[in-house]
Amino acid sequence: MLFAAVAAHAQNPQNRHRHQSLADLINAYRAAPGSCEGRPAVPVAPLALEPALSRAQVASGMFLEQALERAGYPVARAEAIYVEGPLDEHAAMAAIASTYCRTLLSTQFSAIGAGRSGASWLVVLAQPAPPSPASQLAGWQQAGKAILDAVNAARSSARSCGEQQFAPAPALAWNAALADAALAHSLDMATHRSFSHQGKDGRVVGDRALQAGYRWRRIGENIASGQDSPGDAVAGWLSSPGHCANLMHRGFTDMGAAYAVDSARASTRVYWTQVFGTPH
């Protein structure tokens, strides 16, 4: 990440191509750079114009990546150049190119945005973050049933959960009400970026199951956060003695599971909930 300030005097060239934005001028320079720091420079690919980069508001003390995430553009890497003084795009380009030609010609970036406020200019070059693994997940019901399949495969064999030994257990049945209770809690955790068996409304798994219409005699819940697939979530539960014991408990007959992500934020994290039950 780079923050740079350059003071420049306004220039008044006779031929101003005012239809060209600063980002356009930077791409034209990348296509035919001539030289950089006194040495011949080779052309590089143009940068994609990205409006979100132009909208970034970089407050004092804020990391550039944080500002870009707030603008809806998560990045793997980014650099910013700040220029004070030029009154048009060509003057701004002259000030930037004379000092930051290496940055402008970097092949580490694929996108650009340029914003202006009076005589203040901000150029942001960025490489977007790769797609979140959450974007590759199936729908929550399909993922929940994949968890059920993995759980039943685990229950089919004897297993040690820490110091507890468990014999093979009967397969669990999918229950739509427990799945709804699991989804409600995953959504609650994702929305509030919390990780707890107690929801923000104070309810716990038994309350959520009853609200979903499941009258239970025995109830249990596993939660997880950060795993990118149903298989990873189940593997994590199996490696934890308490979660594993829930999963292998012969007293449970039904199960529902779901995941949720907070789509309002750029950096997504997956929240998983698995609810076990035995009805009255």
UniProtKB/TrEMBL annotation:
Residues 148-276 form the SCP domain. Gene3D superfamilies: CAP. It comes from the Bacteria. PANTHER family: SCP DOMAIN-CONTAINING PROTEIN. This is SCP domain-containing protein. It comes from Massilia psychrophila.
